[in-house]
């Protein structure tokens, strides 16, 4: 039998816990009460307490201070914390102190008894010492969930070793006749925003809150156990266990739990999530099949129709359509590369806009396809930046797309619909374009001076802009913009200016005929030259020459 201590300064809450707890069914022989942290410490020193329920807001000695004291003085004591969702500092201390569970006010019967049962399981596991592994590793309550997570992952990844781990299977309900198991995979669509705005960049605290939400409605017949997916920082895995009943019951309850959890996440934290659920099975070893089904259903959700709260379940409908045209992806990447290497960010945006319009009108665009596009876009931009020596502004070697901290206002891989997906692509393009622009700015000055010098010295040749675009790997529009920005003339305008300035110089020599001057300037005939001169100076070459002062005048 076990002893429990309730430490809370609010008498109604202590009374509610006394009434709601299934003490006899949990094997609890005595429930003591303390009105504050100091009084609680005194009772702990006087009695052998197995479990303490600790309120975080108390006079004399608050929950944070008490937990810190308990870590030192009573390291074996199991604790359950009572607080609110928004008490971030309290929750951090709860994580550090490795509490059994985190109950939210007002406490309800289901949550209380589920947390108490979790504590009793740990106490029983300690007493029974079912194996050397359990006796040495489950010394505190947080070890049990990590052990379960490891077991589930080994089954899902098909790496489970029967000989060394079979004795641990009862911890996760395997081997019990009549149990059904299913896997759900859910994805946080706005993870960066929520982590920044609601959890102060604390990823561990975010994981704690999310997994608690999906686990909170477990009872004796249906349980959910969730943990972050090792494959993606945006995804979480939930294992649903139905004790007894029928396979259809397990499927129904699992879908219901997923949908309820997704809805709760939106209400509590503003989280937008989508999920997939695999087929239930009575064989624990088929969790891998259920996981693969769940992940495939999640990946196949249509981004064009996606809404926060979407849940796709195995056997619930026809499989999604396939993307009608994927060849465009292979076409636009080289086009984007060319535009970026030429410094033509405007053209790159135009290409991106054209392809996203094509996707949006295709009728189906999956989450998996969106992930692939973001991944390939990041790799493309990384390559372009590296080739043009744009420096550290691009992705570093070996760095995964989306792994860097987002600049202010940028949410990297957050997208809950197709429009947000377009914004993420454009943000990547603009960040890369800015780095390329800064890198190229220092080298373009010399390029423009070379072009100007070429025109000054060879104005009489047939000068084409393509000569310079091919030599310096610049687009026509971008080169014209750069040249005019530096010298005030377009390239054709500058060629004309140099020729006309030279024409005036040559017309001052009376020994040169108009035809000779025309040829020296590179014109095909004197009539064409005369027309060009008149358009430029509003007089013909002969009229200009006649106005020049004669020798001695």
UniProtKB/TrEMBL annotation:
Domain spans labelled Response regulatory: 3-120
Protein origin, superkingdom: Bacteria
Pfam family, one: Response_reg
CDD domains given in the database record: REC_YesN-like
Alphabetical keyword list: Cytoplasm, DNA-binding, Phosphoprotein, Transcription, Transcription regulation, Two-component regulatory system
Chief location category: cytoplasm
SUPFAM superfamilies named in the record: CheY-like, Homeodomain-like
Chain positions found as 4-aspartylphosphate: 55
Lineage: Bacteria, Bacillati, Bacillota, Bacilli, Bacillales
InterPro entries registered for this protein in UniProt: CheY-like_superfamily, Homeodomain-like_sf, HptR, HTH_AraC, HTH_AraC-typ_CS, Sig_transdc_resp-reg_receiver, Tscrpt_reg_AraC-type_HTH
HTH araC/xylS-type domain segment(s): 449-547
A Gene Ontology term for the protein's cellular component: cytoplasm
Keyword Cell wall biogenesis/degradation: no
Molecular function, one GO term: sequence-specific DNA binding
Protein name: DNA-binding response regulator
PANTHER family linked to this entry: HISTIDINE KINASE-RELATED (PTHR42713), TRANSCRIPTIONAL REGULATORY PROTEIN HPTR (PTHR42713:SF3)
Subcellular location: Cytoplasm
One GO-annotated biological process of the protein: phosphorelay signal transduction system
Keyword presence, Phosphoprotein: yes
PROSITE patterns: HTH_ARAC_FAMILY_1, HTH_ARAC_FAMILY_2, RESPONSE_REGULATORY
Gene3D superfamilies listed in its UniProt record: 3.40.50.2300, Homeodomain-like
